[in-house]
Amino acid sequence: MLPKVARDTLLDFCRRMFVIRHFEESLVPLHDKGVFGGHYHLYIGQEATGVPALSCLRADDYLFTTHRNHGHLLARGADPKKLCAEILGRADGYNKGKGGSFHTVVPSLGFLHTSAVVAGIIPLATGAAYASKALKNGRITVCLFGDGALEEGAAPEAFNLASLWKLPVLFLCENNGKYGAGRATGAAQSSTMAAHPLTDLPKAYKVPAQQVDGLDSGTVHATISQAVEKIRRGEGPQFIEAQTVRWPGSESNWPVVLQNTNASLAWDVNAVPEKVREWYRSCDPLLIYTRELVEAKQATREEIAAIDRKVKAEIDEAVKVAVSSPYPKPEEAAKDYFA
Ligand SMILES: Cc1ncc(C[n+]2csc(CCOP(=O)(O)OP(=O)(O)O)c2C)c(N)n1
Ligand SMILES: [Mg+2]
Predict the structure, then answer these.
(1) Is residue 148 part of a domain?
(2) Residue 229, in any domain of the structure
(3) 115: CA distance to ligand 1 center in Å?
(4) 21 CA distance to ligand 2 centroid (A)?
(5) Is residue 116 within 6 Å of ligand 1 at its C-beta?
(6) Is 124 domain-assigned?
(7) How far is the CA of 149 from the centre of ligand 1 (A)?
(8) What pTM does this model have?
(9) Is the distance from CB of 220 to CB of 170 less than 8 angstroms?
């Protein structure tokens, strides 16, 4: 189902989803050629969660995210040139190349902290929500994390305080299937959590919690906007588990792109290698969204192909700019830290 928003906004969501997809796909060959090192994770397969969800926020709200942050930053309007330069460890990156893929922080977009420490941000986001409540600044905090974060003690501790103190925080858990094992099918379920469904955990702390189909942009948009309204009205925290199906390229330790995305795949996936075809046919949120736009006569196939081409050219340009950005000077190494 499409989000109930104006056509311009629907097309803007489409553009943002393509930005994420092309950006993420373009990182893989860069890494494989040694243009950047270190680990990294891609947001492919979760675009129909992040894009509509973050559109429900105000410009001055706060966000905290994880090792799978690129899509969140881009959904919120990050500059692909500066994000790519950051991931490549270059001086023109958002954090002068010192944060890298796992720790890109963009306070101007509300991202106060990004951490690869699984669940590390949950108490921090709760703290930011506590500050907003104390300062009465009307800002809410969105904490974005994966299903794996619920296995950490930090998560329930934070749910407890957020609930007791009725803090303005949205816990958005993106459940993309079991970590480190094969791809999940249908509703993702972790076998490393005793709490089933995962929403039982926040509910035990009286945090209202619900599951949504993270491939369904309309349901995500409606659910998040209602949750955000309740939080802004002072009702306290909310927890939403968005379920997606792990992109096959994220199954192994390092991302693998067997198929570069283009809009035409929405209507014919025969070009996709058989090994991964089923995911593109039925689980790819970007292609699902594209088909929905056309079926609802909100856009023609040609219009979508034009958005796709334009975004691809922008991302190619962003990569070029990032690759030509210099590394930070050695004397920069000890600057911008605090202890
Ligand atoms: C505290 C901690 N333990 C272990 C890791 C290693 N690690 C990195 S990603 C990850 C899985 C996280 O799964 P999930 O939260 O579901 O996120 P996903 O990668 O599936 O989006 C783990 C265990 C870590 N980064 N931090
Ligand atoms: Mg996960």
Answers:
(1) yes
(2) yes
(3) 10
(4) 18
(5) yes
(6) yes
(7) 7
(8) 0.96
(9) no
Closest listed ligand to the CA of 43: 1
- Ligand 1 neighbour 179 (Cβ under 6 A): yes
Model confidence pLDDT, tens digit, residues 255-312: 999 999 999 999 999 999 999 999 999 999 999 999 999 999 999 999 999 999 999 9
Tell me the C-alpha to C-alpha distance, in Å, between residue 240 and each of 5, 67, 210, 228, 306.
21, 19, 5, 11, 34
What length does the chain have? Answer: 339
- Is 335 inside any structural domain? no
Domain with residue 278: its CATH number is: 3.40.50.970
Q: How far is Cα 262 from Cα 265, in angstroms, rounded to an integer?
A: 6
Provide the number of structural domains found in the chain.
Answer: 1
3-class SS string, the chain: CCCCCCHHHHHHHHHHHHHHHHHHHHHHHHHHCCCCCCCCCCCCCCHHHHHHHHCCCCCCCEEEECCCCHHHHHHCCCCHHHHHHHHCCCCCCCCCCCCCCCCCCCHHHCEEEECCCCCCHHHHHHHHHHHHHHHCCCCCEEEEEEHHHHHCCHHHHHHHHHHHCCCCEEEEEEECCCCCCCCCCCCCCCCCCCCCCCCHHHHHCCCCEEEEECCCHHHHHHHHHHHHHHHHCCCCCEEEEEECCCCHHHCCCCCCCCCCCCHHHHCCCCCCCHHHHHHHHHCCHHHHHHHHHHHCCCCCHHHHHHHHHHHHHHHHHHHHHHHHCCCCCHHHCCCCCCC
Rounded Cα distance between 43 and 68, Å, is: 6
The proportion of the chain whose per-residue pLDDT surpasses 90, expressed as a percent, equals 92
Query: How far, in Å, CA of 29 to CA of 230, rounded?
Result: 43
Please give the number of the atom of ligand 1 that sits closest to the Cα of 145. 15
Its domain, for residue 214, covers 7-322
